[in-house]
From TrEMBL:
<dbReference type="GO" id="GO:0046872">
    <property type="term" value="F:metal ion binding"/>
</dbReference>
<dbReference type="Pfam" id="PF01261">
    <property type="entry name" value="AP_endonuc_2"/>
</dbReference>
<dbReference type="InterPro" id="IPR036237">
    <property type="entry name" value="Xyl_isomerase-like_sf"/>
</dbReference>
<dbReference type="GO" id="GO:0008740">
    <property type="term" value="F:L-rhamnose isomerase activity"/>
</dbReference>
<keyword id="KW-0479">Metal-binding</keyword>
<dbReference type="GO" id="GO:0019301">
    <property type="term" value="P:rhamnose catabolic process"/>
</dbReference>
<keyword id="KW-0464">Manganese</keyword>
<keyword id="KW-0413">Isomerase</keyword>
<dbReference type="InterPro" id="IPR050337">
    <property type="entry name" value="L-rhamnose_isomerase"/>
</dbReference>
<protein>
    <submittedName>
        <fullName>L-rhamnose isomerase</fullName>
        <ecNumber>5.3.1.14</ecNumber>
    </submittedName>
</protein>
<feature type="domain" description="Xylose isomerase-like TIM barrel">
    <location>
        <begin position="72"/>
        <end position="244"/>
    </location>
</feature>
<dbReference type="GO" id="GO:0019324">
    <property type="term" value="P:L-lyxose metabolic process"/>
</dbReference>
<dbReference type="InterPro" id="IPR013457">
    <property type="entry name" value="Rhamnose_iso-rel"/>
</dbReference>
<dbReference type="InterPro" id="IPR013022">
    <property type="entry name" value="Xyl_isomerase-like_TIM-brl"/>
</dbReference>
Length: 388
């Protein structure tokens, strides 16, 4: 197995984008619990995200959600982020909370509704110009609840047309990123339910259209690392939305439910070259902290990704390849598990400190007094928005 010192160059490349909506109040369909100090506007969300980066060095950009993060002056928001040492990242569109979209948006049977949804994406592309964002991320709530309700085949064609119209508008250095999810809010059929559908749709568009894999958007038991390997192989893995699930789209802290799965995913990411910043694979969180504090929730999350990435980098790939080639099932599995069971926490703490970062970012944040400061200064924090 490699020494820790041999993996730090690769480990230093890890950058994880934070979702602005993780800092707002959130909850379930039963209750949204308010927390003290929650941001009242996008400027304060950026300030909170910058705290995560300050203590971890892992989170240099923040994804926005439009219209949840609409501001009058995106140039000012961009300058504000830069002042705080972070950048504005992916723009997430939202065609799932207007009455017009009850029966769908980009895949709707009515061309007027489709055009309304396309126009929203055009507005997002305009914002990307101001924010300097590379990626337009599209997650659709489109689908149906009952057999016979909709022509599921025509909807694929309408979706393809809508996406092509949006794709034509994005810049040469921008990307359209299509996210799939197997169900919810539609319960019978979903228009982009799986990686195969997302792949087929983006493949028809062109090179700058790629797939987003949200780890919470699969049926229980799905082998997600296989999907990672396949999309990387096909050069269509654009980004990750990391989170944990126990049951459905739980949006819990990544690495909380199944650290081994996160390790296996990172093994395939590294195997496919996805850790290299030039690979175009963007790592993001898509989480909500309903009952835990939000800023430390995000700190915990990026640390979990870092820890499992370190373990995946420690995997002895030469030994693994040799065991696989000789058909030695037990040896191959043992090599895979050796790296997973390696406790890297001490080495990571020392490495952070050598780079001028706190050894223990959770403790450093707790000691910083920021939580008290925002609880005093902010009253009436905003809700994150539905369902993130
Ligand atoms: C809804 O499932 C969702 O959680 C998707 O994962 C999106 O990425 C997110 O909302 C933000 O729109
Ligand atoms: Mn997502
Ligand atoms: Mn989701």
């Amino acid at each position: 197995m490699p020494q820790f010192s041999e993996i730090t160059t690769d480990l230093a490349q890890l950058a994880i984008e934070l979702p602005s909506w993780a800092f707002g109040n959130s909850g379930t369909r039963f209750r949204v619990f308010g927390q003290p100090g929650v941001p009242r506007d996008p400027f304060e969300k950026i300030a909170d995200a910058a705290q995560v980066h300050r203590h971890t060095g892992l989170a240099p950009s923040v994804a926005l959600h439009i219209p949840w993060d609409r501001v009058d002056d995106f140039d000012r928001l961009r300058a504000h982020a830069a002042d705080l040492g972070v950048a504005l990242g992916t723009i997430n569109s939202n065609t799932f909370q207007d009455d017009a979209y009850m029966l769908g948006s980009l895949a709707h049977h009515d061309p007027k509704v489709r055009q309304q949804a396309i126009d929203h994406h055009f507005a997002c592309i305009d914002i990307m110009g101001a924010t300097g964002s590379r990626d337009l991320k599209i997650w659709l709530a489109d689908g149906s609840n009952y057999p016979g309700q909709a022509d599921i085949r025509s909807r694929q064609d309408w979706l393809a047309e809508s996406l092509a119209t949006i794709y034509e508008r994005i810049g040469d250095d921008q990307r359209l990123v299509l996210e799939y999810k197997f169900f919810e809010p539609a319960f019978y059929h979903t228009d982009v339910p799986d990686w195969g559908t997302a792949f087929a749709q983006v493949q028809a568009l062109g090179d700058r259209a790629v797939v987003c894999l949200d780890t919470g958007h699969h049926a229980p038991g799905t082998n997600i690392e296989f999907i990672v390997a396949q999309l990387l192989r096909l050069r269509k893995l654009g980004s990750f939305d990391f989170n944990s699930r126990f049951y459905a789209d739980d949006d819990l802290i990544v690495g909380a439910a199944d650290p081994f799965q996160l390790y296996r995913i990172m093994v395939e990411v590294i195997r496919g070259g996805g850790l290299d910043p030039t690979s175009g694979v963007a790592f993001m969180l898509d989480q909500c902290h309903n009952i835990e504090a939000k800023i430390p929730g995000q700190i915990r999350s990026v640390l979990n990704v870092q820890e499992m990435t370190a373990r995946a980098l420690l995997l002895d790939r030469d030994a693994l390849a040799a065991a696989q080639q000789s058909g030695d099932v037990l040896a191959a599995n043992e090599i895979m598990m050796d790296a997973f069971y390696t406790d890297v926490r001490g080495a990571l703490a020392a490495w952070r400190s050598s780079r001028g970062l706190p050894e223990d970012p959770m403790a450093a944040y707790a000691a910083s007094g920021y939580a008290d400061q925002i609880a005093q200064a902010r009253q009436g924090g905003a809700q994150a928005g539905w369902g993130a």
